[in-house]
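WARN no homologs supplied; continuing
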Amino acid sequence: MNVNPLLLIQMIKNGYNPQQLVLNILQQQGQQNPIINNAANLAENGNAAALEQLARNLAKEKGLDFDQEFAKFRQSLL
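OK structure emitted
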């Protein structure tokens, strides 16, 4: 399942709950990917610290700087 980020942004602007949107996407993707399933469970249980650590570890494995990438993501939402 590919997620169109522009569609997500439009849905959020139209009043959809962004947390629930992302959680639904994670749960659908998690059926095929255990890492995403873990992320969905962490998000559903409100374990933000563990979810952030998971994201930081994945970014590090891919040679990315989590803080820079997250800043770019946040900027794209404005």
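Helices lie at 5-13, 18-30, 34-44, 48-61, 66-76.
OK
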